[in-house]
From TrEMBL:
Belongs to the major facilitator superfamily. YhhS family. It is found in: Cell inner membrane; Cell membrane. It holds the Pfam family MFS_1. The keyword Cell inner membrane applies. This is Uncharacterized MFS-type transporter C7G83_12910. It comes from Siccibacter turicensis.
């Protein structure tokens, strides 16, 4: 992994180390998401005795809160500097643990207990959008915007790593020490991260008059649309691959998901310089092609190996779409708006994943499960065409004069 000639100080290992030293705070925030994820639906439904609707709502509230607060997280990071936003986000993660603890202590009053759980989910969603957006911008501030693609990539690795580690760890904690013990664990993770973040040097907030939200949206929405189209593939694999395997009468759905995750993380680790060398739009077109092929393989699978190969290719393809398009989107605005641009761009993925589940479920009910993978392949192909069009007509999406980040 070689660095760039104009930044020899930050080559290879030292560059990655600097990025990881900041991205670790996003890892901590996602660990507080992963820990209760596999526990809460069962707790709400089986232990508290509420319906499956309430169990689902308790989980979904977090995603809704993330979606609604993400643009604000970006704007505040631009105004006050990313370090403060990361600390505020981690405080939210801590307070979510406190809400779970209080919910565990008020089991005698089921409605109050459920309300406290739901409150914890909302606070966690807001906390994550602040910690995640802030950590990315803090990383960019530490290593320079030349390495923005690599920072976004490492943030993704931290996200998926924390979720993969958090879910089984949370189940183990719950089995051993109950909901209150799990809540204390979440609070301890968040508190440790806050104590590590506070002494770290802050990067200055960019000076200059920020663009209004509408102007930022105008500059990044096409990149966001392409991201949303690519995210549909991830959505249908993550949500429905288990049902797909069941319908086919095959075993090994969990292994298919593992293959997807390994390909996703592997691509980010193996090609850290791809975006800087080839350009964001070129990398995204390559990735859209790979993801489309993967989804077609799953859709047309007649043997388990075809489905596994398809999920692997889908993971590898989807892996670099977010950072590749993100680099171009962020550079389409002045430096003092990079936080807003990144957050606005990310909202498109949040929305896509929120819509994909219900929409694919509706299609599946009428046309069968394999069709949703073919439909997602069609959306990926549309993403490829959109990226190609942006590359062919860059003048329509280029930043205005003097707005390129330093």
């Amino acid at each position: 992994m070689s660095g760039h000639a104009d930044e020899p100080v930050l080559s290879g290992f030292r560059l990655n180390l600097r990025i990881v030293s900041v991205v670790i705070f996003n890892f901590a925030s996602y660990l507080t998401i992963g820990l209760p994820l596999a526990v809460l639906p069962g707790y709400v439904h089986d232990v508290m005795g509420f319906s499956a609707f309430w169990a689902g709502l308790a989980i979904s509230l977090q995603y809704l809160a993330t979606l609604l607060t993400r643009p604000h997280a970006g704007r505040y990071a631009d105004l006050f500097g990313p370090k403060k936003i990361v600390v505020i986000g981690l405080c939210g993660c801590f307070l979510s643990g406190l809400s779970y603890l209080l919910a565990g202590l008020t089991t005698g009053w089921p409605l109050l207990s459920l309300a406290l759980l739901c409150l914890g989910r909302v606070i966690l969603g807001a906390g994550q959008s602040f910690a995640g957006t802030g950590a990315t911008l803090w990383g960019v501030g530490v290593v320079g915007s030349l390495h923005i693609g690599r920072v976004i990539s490492w943030n993704g690795i931290a996200t998926y790593g924390a979720m993969a580690l958090g879910a089984p760890l949370g189940v183990l904690c719950y089995q051993q020490i109950g909901l209150q013990g799990l809540a204390w664990t979440i609070m301890a993770v968040a508190l440790l991260a806050i104590l590590c973040a506070l002494p770290r040097a802050a990067v200055k907030a960019s000076k200059g008059k920020p663009l209004p939200f509408r102007a930022v949206l105008g500059r990044v929405w096409l990149y966001g649309m392409a991201l949303a189209l690519g995210s549909a593939g991830f959505g249908v694999i993550a949500t429905f691959i288990t049902l797909f395997y069941d319908a086919k009468g095959w075993d090994g759905a969990a292994f298919a998901l593992t293959l997807f995750s390994c390909a996703f993380v592997g691509a980010r680790l193996l090609f850290p310089n791809a975006i800087a060398r080839l350009g964001g739009l070129n990398v995204s077109m390559l990735c859209f092609t790979v993801e489309t092929l993967g989804l077609l393989l799953v859709g047309f699978a007649v043997d388990p190996w075809m489905a596994k190969a398809g999920t692997f290719l889908t993971g590898a393809g989807f892996s670099l779409i977010f950072p590749a398009l993100g680099v171009v989107a962020v550079k389409a605005v002045p430096q003092q708006n990079q936080g807003s641009a990144l957050a606005t761009y990310t909202v498109f993925m949040d929305l896509s994943l929120g819509i994909t589940g219900p929409l694919a479920g509706f299609v599946m009910a009428y046309a069968g499960i394999p069709v949703i993978y073919l439909a997602a392949a069609g959306l990926c192909a549309a993403g490829l065409l959109l990226a190609w069009r942006m590359k062919k007509r860059p003048e329509a999406h280029a930043p205005q004069a003097g707005s390129t980040p330093s």
